[in-house]
Amino acid sequence: MRRLSWRVVASVVTGLALTLEALPWLLSRLQVRRQRRPRRDVLFFPSQVTCTEALLQPPGAAPAGPSVDCLCSLPHSESSLSRLLRALLAARVSLELCLFAFSNPQLGRAVRLLHQRGVRVRVVTDCDYMALNGSQIGLLRKAGIQVRHDQDLGYMHHKFAIVDKKVLITGSLNWTTQAIQNNRENVLIMEDAEYVRLFLEEFERIWEEFNPTKYSFFPKKKQGY
C-alpha cells in the first residue's frame, strides 16, 4: 500500500513538472489566438440610403448612437456608406485623402469633423473637378484643411484614403453621391503595413509634386477620363 502511494505521488509530481514545462508554450499559443486580426473589409455600392446623423456629431455634442431619436424618415440601419464613414471617423491622428472627385456631403462632414477633433487632414485632388458645383473641396479649405491639386493635363484620378498611417481605404468609388447611390462600385478597407507604406509613399510624392510653390500654369481643358 505504501509502495502504491509513492507511485501515485511520483506520477502526480511528474505530471505537474510536465505541465509547468509546457505552460509557457500554452500561454504563447493563447496569446496568438487572442491577438486582433488585421482588418479586412469589402464594401459594395450602390449603398442603401440610411440616416448617418448619429455618426456625424460635432465635438462637445451629446453622445449619439442607434438609440438616439431622429425625426428623419430614412432607415436607421447599417449601409456601405455608414461603414465607410465609421472607417474614416476611426482616425485619431492623421488622415490622407487622394481623391479625383469629392462632392458627397456626408463624407465632407466626416472629414471636417475629424479636423475639428484635431486630426491632421491632408487632401490631394484634381484641379478641374474640385471646382464643380457641389464639390466639398471649398468647404474643406474654408475649414482650414490643407488641400493641394494638380496642374498638368492628366487627371489626378486616385481614389484612396489612409487612416492613422495604419488603414488603407481604396477602390473604384468616387466620393460623390451619384457614385454612392447609383453606381456599382467597390471599396477595400485593409490593415496591411506593406500596402499602407506603398500608398503613403505615393501620397507623399504627389503631395510634394503638387506644392503650390511649384505651380507654373493652370490648364484650360483636359482630355480623356
From TrEMBL:
Q: Which InterPro entries match?
A: PLD-like_dom, PLD_domain, PLipase_D/transphosphatidylase
**PROSITE patterns the UniProt entry points to:** PLD
Q: List the GO cellular component terms.
A: mitochondrial outer membrane
Catalytic activity field: a cardiolipin + H2O = a 1,2-diacyl-sn-glycero-3-phospho-(1'-sn-glycerol) + a 1,2-diacyl-sn-glycero-3-phosphate + H(+)
Where does it primarily localize?
A: mitochondrion
Assembly with partners or alone: Homodimer. Interacts with MOV10L1. Interacts with MIGA1 and MIGA2; possibly facilitating homodimer formation. Interacts with GK2.
> In its UniProt entry, what is this protein called?
Mitochondrial cardiolipin hydrolase
Q: Which organism is it from?
A: Heterocephalus glaber (Naked mole rat)
The encoding gene is Pld6
